[in-house]
Write a structure and sequence with these properties.
Helices cover 40% and strands 16% of the residues. By secondary structure, the protein is an alpha+beta fold. The chain is globular, with a radius of gyration of 19 Å.
Length: 168
């Protein structure tokens, strides 16, 4: 009887142990914790799948758009404010960058803890959905920044752009 009781405790303990991030698909990993990182490849894959399901081509990760998205997510987290014009306006950020595309759009958000949640929020918002389904975009940059002192915990920026038209 004691053995059965101990076996029951052992099984309960195993079931209660938290999963490691290796066991959870990256789009479900909570980014509302220190030392967690957004999987940009998973984000590009998720957005590409969404676009494919809507008859559009895929997107690829762009280094400059990643830098710009990271910068905006950090700025929003530092100021505990969500918006396209937190810090510097979106148009000014693009103008000062090396991005020279005909179409450049941005989705921002806060409070979503996982990539899946952020994507769902953007997908279900008409304006954000339109950005992700723009006919012209082929490149993305995405970032999520953890802000432990904020009620939001995680700030998001996604920048989508058409191909660069000229190099400066």
């Amino acid at each position: 009887m004691l053995a059965a009781f101990l076996l029951g405790i052992g099984l309960a303990a195993c079931a209660a142990e938290p999963q490691t991030t290796d066991e959870i698909p990256s789009f479900y990993v909570s980014l509302a914790a220190a030392h967690t990182e957004l999987d940009a490849k998973a984000a590009a894959s998720m957005i590409s799948g969404f676009r494919r399901n809507n008859g559009l081509g895929p997107v690829t990760i762009d280094r400059e758009l990643m830098r710009l998205a990271q910068e905006q997510a950090r700025t929003m987290a530092a100021r505990n404010e969500v918006g396209h014009n937190v810090g510097v306006s979106f148009s000014e950020r693009i103008r000062k960058s090396t991005v020279r595309a005909r179409a450049v759009v941005e989705n921002v958000a806060a409070g979503y803890h996982t990539l899946a949640e952020a994507f769902s929020g953007w997908r279900d918002s008409p304006g954000h959905r339109a950005n992700m389904l723009s006919l012209e975009v082929t490149r993305i940059g995405i970032a999520a920044v953890y802000a432990p002192g904020s009620k939001y915990k995680v700030f998001w920026a996604l920048i989508l752009a058409s191909p660069n038209e000229r190099a400066d």
